[in-house]
Amino acid sequence: MNHFKLVEQFCLIQLQVLRDREQRLRKDLHDCSIQREYLSHFLAELGENESFNPIDDLIKEIKLIEDE
Description:
By secondary structure, this protein is mainly alpha-helical.
């Protein structure tokens, strides 16, 4: 295999590595966005409802997530 082909293969592999990394980062950002939205909603409910029992509701939410 000549040097040109070796360099070409290396570049193609590096491009794939970068695409995979970019995809993983996009997923991580999406997960962060979902968590931020959930926590914001949770805090809003906490502030709106004085009888809100955060521990019981949090346990219910955790159980729902675990069941998925």
